[in-house]
C-alpha cells in the first residue's frame, strides 16, 4: 500500500497537532481543563432557513459585535472561533520564508497555525517572573532570520493570566509600523477595564481577537471575531472560507450579543470572579501549594510542590485539569478553570486530603 505519510507535505509530516483539552480527553465527571463556562444557557432556534447557505458574514452578528465593542461594522470579522482568526492572519500575511513571533508560555495555537501554514516562528524571552518583555519582542523582530509579519500576544494571557501593559504595547506598535501585533483578548470580559481596544483607532497595525467561547459561555458554537482596520478586515475576507458561520451559530450568536445576552454575560463574569478569589484564598492556605499566579481570567494557574502528583490524583478522582508541567518556566503548575462552586469544592476536598497526608 502507498505510504500516505510520505505523500503528505513535508511540513505536515513533521506537524504535532494542537493538544486541545477535547483531543487529550480523559475519563472524568468534572472538566476544569478548557476554561469553559460551567453552564449553558437557553436559546431559541428557528430551523426554517436551513436549506439556504448562510451569509459569509451574518449581518446581525457583525453588527452585534460592532455595537458591543463600539466599532464600525467594517472593523469586525466573524470567524469559526478565535482559532480560525489566528490561522487566517497567518495565511493572509505570511509568505513562504516569513513568519511570526511568539513568547512562550502562551496559547499554543499561534505556533501551530504558523507551522501548519509554512510560516517561520521565532521566540521572545519573557522576564524572570514570566511577564512579557517588550524589549525582548523588539529584539526577536529585529534579529529573526526571516521577515517578521505578525507578533501574537495574549492579554489576559493563557495560561499565565496576566495583562500586557498598554505603554509597552504602544511603544511596539509605534516602533514597528510594518509588523502586525495580534492582541488576543479571548478572556478580556473577566477584566474589561484592561482591554486595549481604545488603541485600535490610533494604531492600524493592531489586530484584536475576541471570542464567544469564554465569558459568553458558547465554546460549543465556535464563534470568534477579529477587530482591525477595515483594510485588514478586507484582506482577511479574501482568504476566509465561503460560509464559515453556520446558520444555527449565527442565530445563537445574535442572541448572545443582544442586550439580554450581554447582561447575562456580565452576571456570569461577576460570579466567576467572586468564586475565583475565594478559591485563590483557599488554595493559598494549603501547604502543598507553592504559588497561585495572578489572574485576570476565568482560571487560576497554580504551582504545587509536586504538580504531577496532584494532576494524577485528580485524574483518579475523575477531575480533569490542565497540566503545564513541560512548558518553559511552569514546572509543577496546573491550570484550573473556575467551574461551579460544587466543582471547586470537589477540587478543594482532594487537595485538602492530600495536604493532610
Ligand atoms: N486565544 C486564547 C488565549 C485561548 O485560550 C483560546 C481558547 N483556548 C482561544 C484564543 C481560541 O478560542 P476559540 O477558538 O474557542 O474562540
Automatic annotation (TrEMBL):
Enzyme class: transferase
GO molecular function: histidinol-phosphate transaminase activity; pyridoxal phosphate binding
Pfam families assigned to the protein according to its UniProt record, in alphabetical order: Aminotran_1_2
Modified-residue entries (N6-(pyridoxal phosphate)lysine), positions: 214
Pathway it works in: Amino-acid biosynthesis; L-histidine biosynthesis; L-histidine from 5-phospho-alpha-D-ribose 1-diphosphate: step 7/9
Alphabetic keyword roster: Amino-acid biosynthesis, Aminotransferase, Histidine biosynthesis, Pyridoxal phosphate, Transferase
Catalysed reaction, written as an equation: L-histidinol phosphate + 2-oxoglutarate = 3-(imidazol-4-yl)-2-oxopropyl phosphate + L-glutamate
Top-rank taxon: Bacteria
SUPFAM superfamilies: PLP-dependent transferases
Entry EC number(s): 2.6.1.9
Domain Aminotransferase class I/classII large: from-to ranges: 45-350
Cofactor(s) for this UniProt protein: pyridoxal 5'-phosphate
GO terms, biological process: L-histidine biosynthetic process
Similarity comment text for this entry: Belongs to the class-II pyridoxal-phosphate-dependent aminotransferase family. Histidinol-phosphate aminotransferase subfamily.
Alphabetized HAMAP family for the sequence: HisC_aminotrans_2
Subunit and interaction comment: Homodimer.
Protein known as: Histidinol-phosphate aminotransferase
Annotated source species: Candidatus Anaerobiospirillum pullistercoris
Lineage per the UniProt record: Bacteria, Pseudomonadati, Pseudomonadota, Gammaproteobacteria, Aeromonadales
